[in-house]
Write a structure and sequence with these properties.
The complex is a heterodimer of chains A (474) and B (66).
Chain A lengths: L2 H4 L3 H9 L5 H15 L6 E4 L1 H16 L11 E5 L26 H9 L2 E6 L22 E2 L2 E5 L5 H8 L6 E5 L5 H7 L2 E4 L19 E6 L2 H11 L28 E4 L3 H4 L5 H13 L3 E4 L7 H16 L1 H5 L9 H10 L4 H23 L3 E5 L30 H7 L4 E9 L2 E9 L4 H14 L13
Chain B lengths: L6 H8 L3 H9 L1 H23 L16
The chains are: A alpha/beta (474), B mainly alpha (66).
């Protein structure tokens, strides 16, 4: 099997399986071996599931033989962030206190992917407890710091660190990650892959570790927007086991997408002043490509809200409640990151009125975003304003300092979008000092097809998403 | 406001064994500083939110579905 297979799209792999160019067992074994051998190099692998995967691949090969076709994900291997439960297997949540936790049930998203004939080949590493209220070092994980395939002295991003680096290194065709505030978009941007954060409630979280009930989302990290659309269609849908479920399905329908020339895209000119100087030409070039799609461009500004204070208060209050027994038992001290330990403990002291105040302001924020989107279809901004930091650097600089107002430009778009439950996609848009950077596109709730249409057109016009890390270059 | 552990919580913390003790001794003073910093951050955030005017009719942004 050639290296090209490890960087092929879902559609291409499924087509080659149908044509019997290789069997599902051969494909799954090739990816599983690669994940087991290279995964540890990036601290990306939490648990290999090779035997389970090969057994399932044999069943899928039988289906191909009988010409029983399930869809584009049939026979496609994937990896899942280690906060998704798989019955009978360890689910560590990336945290030492849960290192021996064995799941009794299987997460709805994993059941849904199994129904499509897609095959899980491994659990992928993550930042402990998906980052909790905050963490200071990339090493905040049971598996060590997530290492970036573009430069292993740099961080892969978090908290879906293994999902980002495994896709970037061609260890899995796609992966599942989760985002409470930035955990899909950040590793996608830092690792040069495409990640989609769905609208809150579109994808069931049943069987996933909770960090903040009102903010957690599960989404795909893939090689392209097209692949994200295919995976999202399969994992989305109502679920009575998830109290936050919106009860909606998603059908990836690029053929029915609105014409880009009919859409209006908001952007903030100040963003180009906020990115690192070396990154300006890259983001200017990316914005030029967005313009060339024919979409109407309009200057826009985020509503003024104390985004950092809101996000931190909500995640802190909900997260410390989720992990109250971990904190009060003292086992919280087994976590790797001292800042996360301190943050979880402090979160228990937040009062009900403070949490409710944050949630009431969140209502106002959602209303303001409805007003903003009355005149716009999407917002576009840098996914992150810098390249991946070195693993030895504290991560504090990545986060917005607490303050009475939002930061300039769209710099608060990640917390803002998460507080409002908005969908977003991060697409690779160039390189700075050899490291990938990404552009984020954000839309109204349940507008994933619009985001995917713009992202797909961007990727039709560029090849950033097809680049491979130096060690894997063809 | 500092959280006061109950006696039952303190007993549970004391019973968590060597691993916890080791983790704590490796950065005891740093840990205390970080806990104070985390409490201060929460307080600053609450202060920021308190300054934000909220109409009396505004309900929290979560839904309970019966």
């Amino acid at each position: 099997m050639t290296d090209d297979v490890f960087f092929a799209s879902i559609t291409e792999l499924n087509g080659r399986l149908r044509k019997r160019e290789f069997s599902t067992v051969e494909l799954v074994r090739a990816f599983a071996d690669r994940l087991e051998s290279l995964g540890p190099k990036y601290n990306a692998l939490a648990l290999p599931l090779t035997k389970l995967a090969v057994d399932r691949a044999k069943e899928i090969d039988g289906e191909f033989k009988r010409q029983r076709y399930r869809g584009p994900l049939q026979g496609i291997p994937f990896g899942a962030k280690d906060l998704l439960a798989l019955a009978g297997y360890k689910t560590t949540w990336g945290a030492k206190p849960f290192a021996d936790q064995v799941s009794q049930n299987t997460a709805t998203v994993l059941e849904k992917l199994d129904d499509t004939g897609s095959i899980i080949i491994g659990k992928l590493a993550m930042v402990e407890l998906a980052g909790g209220p905050s963490y200071r070092m990339a090493s905040a994980s049971l598996f060590g710091p997530g290492l970036n395939p573009w430069d292993t002295s740099s961080w892969s991003g978090g908290s879906s660190s293994g999902s980002g680096s495994a896709v970037a290194a061609g260890l899995v065709p796609f992966a599942l990650g989760s985002e409470t505030s930035g955990s899909i978009l950040t590793p996608s941007a830092f690792c040069g892959v495409t990640g989609l954060r769905p609208t809150y409630g579109l994808v069931s979280r049943h069987g996933a570790m909770a960090l903040a009930w009102t903010m957690d989302k599960i989404g795909p990290i893939c090689r392209s927007a097209e692949d994200c659309g295919l995976v999202l269609e399969e994992i989305a849908g109502g679920d009575s086991h998830d109290p936050g479920s919106a009860g909606k399905s998603f059908y990836y329908t690029p053929q029915y997408a609105r014409k880009l020339t009919d859409l209006k895209c908001g952007f903030a000119p100040a963003d180009l002043e906020l990115v690192e100087p070396d990154a300006r030409p890259v983001f200017e070039g990316a914005m030029q490509v967005i313009r060339q799609t024919g979409i109407q461009m309009a200057e826009a500004a985020l509503p003024e809200f104390p985004y950092a204070a809101l996000t931190h208060t909500v995640i802190s209050a909900e997260g410390s409640s989720v992990f109250e027994s971990l904190i009060t038992s003292g086992k919280v001290n087994e976590l790797a990151d001292a800042k996360q330990i301190a943050g979880l403990k402090a979160g228990l002291e937040l009062g009900a009125k403070d949490y409710l105040k944050a949630m009431r302001i969140r209502s106002l924020l959602k209303a303001k975003f409805r007003e903003l989107f009355a005149g716009l279809d999407v917002l576009v901004a840098p996914a992150r304003y810098s390249i991946a930091p070195k693993i030895s650097e504290p991560l504090d600089a990545l986060r917005a300092p607490p303050g009475p107002t939002s930061r300039p430009g769209m710099a608060s778009l990640i917390p803002a979008g998460n507080l409002a439950g908005l969908p977003a996609i991060s697409i690779p848009c160039g390189f700075v000092a050899g490291m990938p950077v990404g552009l984020q596109i954000v839309g109204t709730p349940f507008s994933e097809n619009t985001l995917l249409a713009l992202a797909r057109e961007f990727q039709n016009r560029t090849d950033w998403h097809k680049r491979r890390p130096p060690a894997m270059a063809s | 406001m500092k959280h006061k552990f109950t006696r039952r919580e303190l007993a549970a913390i004391a019973a968590t064994g060597a691993v916890t003790a080791q983790a704590q001794t490796s950065g005891q003073s740093g840990g205390e500083d970080l806990e104070k910093a985390a409490r201060d951050l929460n307080a600053r955030n609450v202060e920021t939110l308190t300054k934000f005017e909220i109409p009396i009719s505004t309900e929290p942004a979560f839904q309970f579905k019966a």
